[in-house]
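Hey,
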Amino acid sequence: MGFSGFPDEAFLFYEGLEADNSKTYFGRHKQLYEEAVRAPMLALTDELAAEFGPAHLFRPYRDVRFSKDKAPYKTHQGAFVEALPGIGLYVEVSAEGLFVAGGVYSTASDQVARYRAAVDEDLSGKPLESITDALVADGYELLGDRLKTRPRGFEEDHPRIGLLRHRSIFAGKRFEPQGWVHTARVRGRVEHAWRAFGPLVEWLCTHVRGSELPRR
């Protein structure tokens, strides 16, 4: 079956999970999760794959081994199209609605070093500034892990000090669960956003690349 939107039950499922994040709740509503959340997300990403590539759907279970928060389930369903490790396009459904993003969410130290070197250099830094300014002007939010102060080795009056503070950077936009999220119009919204994120993802693939350090 083709993608026809996320039913209201998807958002009700996550409202319930936020109130009762337990194995009992999830077990009782697992079929609802499969039918109202996972199946529509698979249908959406399958239809987007021809233009953007295949997506990986994240598991609903949280890794709580090193977390103080022992809640067993994620309160959202995300899907990621990877251009390079950690760099790519993202879509998520939760009780808050639909979230779309593109960029790099987490980075290793070698990637941060390459990112800041590229931002510092006018030939590569100015194009990134133009890309991010255009995204903000189009209503997207510039997000990511960033320092509150200037990074070591850079002056506070650097023309791109705001970008240099980032350790990771991605653009995103959240849509509240209005009527159109229950229809196939979702696909067009995601397509429009992912196309807008394309220049940022391309810049990151060129200048930040995948990590050269071993992952633990």
